[in-house]
Amino acid sequence: MENQVQTLTSYLWSRHLPVEPEELQRRARHLEKKFLENPDLSQTEEKLRGAVLHALRKTTYHWQELSYTEGLSLVYMAARLDGGFAAVSRAFHEIRARNPAFQPQTLMDFGSGTGSVTWAAHSIWGQSLREYMCVDRSAA
Q: Could you state, in order of their start, the residue ranges of all structural domains in the chain?
């Protein structure tokens, strides 16, 4: 399990955001212009399109959505829970130290992931929190 956690953590840190369609089109136009400026290459439209697509594939990050199975979900939780919980707990401790009278009654966690914000908030404010709203996107 430790190897899987390390592998997933490395993969998640190495990911880039997906390229927006407009940016991809801009890059394709730039490459096409670059290929057309080269007088040594006589390009048919089909060859030009193939060369542009080949260059785009080589130079553009290929983002893929993760498909979370039960096993991968457990590995994800093991990889991300402790760091997220520690960071949020530290922030909540600072809030409590600066304003001890602050007793939130509701919590909205957008992008709740592993639920570490909910756990950290409950560990700091306990019973004052009466309502939790956790929102995360799902492909399901």
A: 1-59, 80-135
